[in-house]
């Protein structure tokens, strides 16, 4: 809870996240994919996330306080929409409404203590240890859907150093693992930190969640029309 309060009250910060996640195959075998994210937060409303997947695909997401921009550099496309509210509201909208993947998004919201209090059912202290030379407290927590291991830095800046999530209700119980490093709670923010520049020739598209889909009645009518031919 000290970690949650510390992150939730931070005015600005930047961090590097190196993650790995399981994709369970039909055979039951787990294949791990990876990603690297550079995250910069400036509350109450701005965020920049630069991502590179293990296959080299690069994306950029920027919240400016006025709009959301997501750029896919591999496919040379980008999408923009108005930003709904502050950073907390936008992160929820980004994941829930736009259906975009954002691992550990909860760590970036200012209401993190309340989220922990609501979701976590049990916490156990495992041990005090070191992660890449950083003294940490290893904790194991449980929620209804996810088992959580988290290593929190010792001292007056209790930031997370490592996180492991186990999705215990999903087939094969896949995991997401992340190493968090280079925390900076006084980052230098330039004028263009929260500016997204699509590559030359990039095409503007809509977010998939914004594309209208045919209603059930319309699909049924079209199917009946096709069957009558």
Automatic annotation (TrEMBL):
<keyword id="KW-0732">Signal</keyword>
<dbReference type="InterPro" id="IPR019207">
    <property type="entry name" value="DUF2092"/>
</dbReference>
<dbReference type="Pfam" id="PF09865">
    <property type="entry name" value="DUF2092"/>
</dbReference>
<protein>
    <recommendedName>
        <fullName>DUF2092 domain-containing protein</fullName>
    </recommendedName>
</protein>
<dbReference type="InterPro" id="IPR029046">
    <property type="entry name" value="LolA/LolB/LppX"/>
</dbReference>
